[in-house]
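Write out the 3D structure for:
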Amino acid sequence: MKNKSIFSGNYPQTRMRRNRMKNFSNKLISENNLNIHDLIYPIFITEGKNISDSISSMPGVFRFSIDCLLQLLEDVVNLGIPAIALFPCIEKQYKDSDGSEAINSNNLVCRAVKLIKKEFPDLGLICDVALDPYTNHGHDGILINDVVDNDKTVDILCKQALVQAEAGCDIIAPSDMMDGRVAAIRNYLDENNFIDTQIMSYAAKYASSFYGPFRNAVGSNNSKKTIDKSSYQMNPANSNEAIREVELDISEGADMVIIKPGMPYLDIIYRVKSECNIPVFAYQVSGEYAMITYAAKNQCINKQDAMLESIIAFKRAGADGVLSYFALEVAKIISINK
């Protein structure tokens, strides 16, 4: 007796695979697409000249002196990446317990911003507002009796934001997670006639284990043991708290918000986009970059496929854009495949 197929007659009438069978059809039904305009490129800068210093914990990522940075930005601008985010590696002699170099109007970031704006006036510049690159203890704020003092920190963050705005920064990005800092910075900028300077707040920044390579890149991990920032960065177990943090930053005048890290917090990106009426950006952090890069280096995964899949995941979750160390590579792929 012959075995009869269970698929008799016209069953199944609905075949989901039909739309997937050919490449053109797959493109037509794509629910989310990557665009170069979705990308923000984080870049590390350092003092000196003719320096492209490789970062051991982030293969393929470098610290650039300003002259080399300007050469790199030719590619960034030509590809159409709309904005970059600057992160400084400050020399030890400029660090102190209060992070006072952060408010020096001639510091590394301010000098870089001035030169970039002169050469590339239409490129969006995002400057990090936090003290960890500038403090000798590596915390994002001022320590009083080994505890980060919220209000003293906010006071210096306002001054840091102002010198960056005066240098020509387009977007101020406070990443410190101090309470009330968005309102304080907004008011301080407005009082000094920088009413059009945008604030992209790290509204939900978690106390994550995925930041290690970044801290190496900016030189903020000055001790052998990991710095505990859980008194101001968020508990990875919490999601409702993230909504409250975002809502507070919106009420204080944030124009956009960042969720950091990215991939382990896709649910947070989705909730914020669904529940809060504000542009949302994901930060694919250094640990995420390193995992994909090292896995590809050891032939565990295909790098190009993995990085594209990871970026589209942020878009699928609802992110309006992504800060990623893969931005330049992804932009080149998108440009080729146009």
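The first helix runs from residue 23 to 28.
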